[in-house]
Amino acid sequence: MSGIEIETHSWFVEKESDPEHGHYVFAYTITISNSGAMPGQLLSRHWFVTDGADQVEEVEGPGVVGKQPRLEGGESFRYTSAAVLGTPVGSMYGSYEFRRDDDTRFRVLIPAFTLAVPSAIH
Question: Is 122 part of any domain?
Answer without folding.
Answer: no
